[in-house]
Amino acid sequence: MTSTVAPYKFHVSSRDFKIDSIGKMLKNGDIPANIFGLSKPSVSIKCSKRVVQKQQEDIESGLIYVVVDNKDEYPVLLEEIQVNPVTKEPLHVVFKRVNLAEKIEAEVPLEIVGECVVKNANILLVRDTLLIEALPSNIPERITVDISVLTEIGQSLGVAELQFDRAVVELKLSEEELEAPLVIVQEVKEEKEEEVVAVVDAAAGEETTESKEAGSSETEKSDPAKE
Fold it and tell me: Is the full-model pTM beyond 0.85?
């Protein structure tokens, strides 16, 4: 299943290096950003840190339009959001220009949908993203796989079960990746508790300890009279 909503429009302002220092931008709640690609000069811009944080999912959703000063629109893909390693707040954003008439490769998130009713099971998602090729306007926000069809431990789902428009989106995976499972139903194994059992060493008269699995028979004690 693919998303068909209109591309998100991200409004920013042009940056004047003579007056828009990093300190001044941060004081005003802005962070630096730039647009590059297609062998054209890079465009320096600034954007609201609060909006980047609030709308990050939209910014990462595939093709978007960066609107500079409410007039110039650039079709782009998000290249990177640099974040503070401690606070995780965005520090700098990089966008990549795209040609709407040329197919490009992009990593698209893989998402589980539906509900698996298999008891004592754990659903393992083998990979988080898939490499695809499509026109920028056809890049899906995500590709989904429905786990409600799974009925028993050991089953798996692969590329054939993915839900997306194969007429406009091509997976760029190796033969090995195409054959590998993407979702696996694993059995949840309960950990057996161990109890510590006191054992008397009749010969030495000392007490030692042994561990045994809960539910097993009691440790036999030696009988000096039988030795």
Answer: no
